[in-house]
Amino acid sequence: QVQLVESGGGLVQPGGSLRLSCLVSGRTFSWYAMGWFRQAPGKEREFVAGDNRNGSMPYYADSVKGRFTISRDNTKNTLYLHMNSLKYEDTAVYYCAARYGSLSNFVYWGQGTQVTVSS
Asked: Which of the residues 13, 39, 80, 84 has an alpha carbon 20 to 30 A from that of 61?
């Protein structure tokens, strides 16, 4: 059984930064390609960022490109999302997810962490 636990969310002012973490346990972390998603109130969940198994090929939604960075530390079984220049519209619950390969569906999900951008 794979478990994903996000942390690092909170309240931040516009223009500020946060770093989210996702600790993966239960299986070998490097087996999985990972992703970050978010869901704002009243909206559908949307893709934010993803990577491949060794983190060498990150990719991003246009809305966060240039502001967010996905990274991973396979020695710590942890995925990160570095968020800079945060905007009001980045407010959402952020989820990490895992899949077996870049062409498969995401099958494991965390419980989410709230990010609120407000002055």
From this structure: 13
